[in-house]
Amino acid sequence: MSHPDLAVQRPPGRPPQLVVDADGDPVGWLGRHRDALRGAVLAHGAVLLRGLGLRDDVDAGAALRALAPGGLLPEREAFAPRQPYPGGAYSSTKWPAQQRMCLHHELSYGLQFPGTMMFACLVAPTAGGETAIADAAAVLEALPPELVARCDREGWRLDRSYGDEIGAAWSEAFGTDDPRAVEHYCRSHGIEFAWRDDGGLRTRQRRPAIARHPVTGVRCWFNQIAFLNAHTLDDEVRAFLLEVFGEEGLPFTTRFGDGEEVGADVVALVNEVYERHTLREPWEAGDLLLVDNVRTAHGREPYVGTRAVLVGMADPLHVAQLAPTAAPTATAAAS
């Protein structure tokens, strides 16, 4: 069901789309249609606005803020660097152009996370680079019942190692150079932590893997077990990191709630199901993609050329709003 004011189309294999005539005023158009757009995103899970005509990062930042009545959210616990822009927007995550970014739900390892993701394309790549999406309710339905039951019962665990040599530095991820502020954040967000002798940081957090949408009540696959997993790393890179830093020094990996590693077979299975439900549309400069972060997973395809996409996060949610069956837990202990 679409909002009566918006003629959203559902082309096969492609995201829901709306062709826009903003008459040279994209920010004004978005402001006038904000409520209708938010209703369309709730109904469809995502909507691509084509023809909006966003021209530069100032335009795009103003557009993202026009759709976020509570303001744009700052990013915490980032796993890779982003460039911040004035007003709360960010660049897309820095990820090698030749590598696919597996589908996932933004910050689904946090106690708090955005309910809405917004992607504004300023420069479209020569080839590839689509922001792929998939219906998380359909993905959940298609996964093997035994895997769903286990994840429903146990949740999933994210193990991370922060350092200057690999992964994100903890100062970048937590937005502070003060170790005490990091410890306070971890304690208040259910994250177990330990400082290494070299000043690096290790963390561990358990989160629910399945969520009930806070508005519609639809159950969704909601996690990053197939993305922030050591098996998503290139084989040679993973072997090198294991040899030099050991298993605890990997920048990230995922486990089931009981601590058993999520292996390559599970990662391949989840990504295969994602692929069967993935929708793609090549970017055009000026496009804006709106995504319900609980109902819809997103990722990024490999690309050639220059790609510039600004990201906005809005509508904060807390994990308690998702009616989790596996409660988030952690015992904070610093060494």
From TrEMBL:
Protein source organism: Actinomycetospora lemnae
A GO molecular-function annotation: dioxygenase activity
Pfam hit, one: TauD
The TauD/TfdA-like domain, residue ranges: 30-312
Protein name in UniProt: TauD/TfdA family dioxygenase
Keywords linked to the UniProt accession: Antibiotic biosynthesis, Dioxygenase, Iron, Oxidoreductase
Cofactor(s) for this UniProt protein: Fe(2+)
Cell membrane listed as a keyword: no
Keyword flag Iron: yes
